[in-house]
Amino acid sequence: MDLKEIKRSSLSKFRELLNTENPHSKCFICDEKIINETPSIDHVIPWSFLFSDDVWNLVYTHKACNSQKSNAIPTEKEIEKLEKRNATLLHILMSDANYKTKKPTKELEIAIEKDYVKKFWINCKT
Q1: Phi and psi dihedrals of 33, rounded to 5?
Q2: Structure pTM?
Q3: CA–CA separation, 78 vs 62, rounded Å?
Q4: Less packed terminus of the chain by CB within 10 Å, N or C?
Q5: Residue 105 falls within a domain, yes or no?
């Protein structure tokens, strides 16, 4: 695979989904409210390991927190936090007729059923 040919796409299309679970823009990394800046959308498991943009792996962060994290593999505590966030997000999306049948909701449901967060995290660590 030629890594130079893999293109990253804009993550702004995920803002609406992230806002449903995190309307006050709380940083996933430091747990502080993001004020006076547009929240960064961060891949909890770094994009450089998955080469994929999936809502189950995306969260809001401060720009500085995101930069400081860089490509670090998340801790088990962060993975557990992401799994809880995903369960909450799925519950919100499934209870809203506007989101229930949309592709990101179905993808999130499959990711939870198949335990993608834990499986990809374990594979990235090895």
Answers
A1: -65, 140
A2: 0.92
A3: 16
A4: C
A5: yes
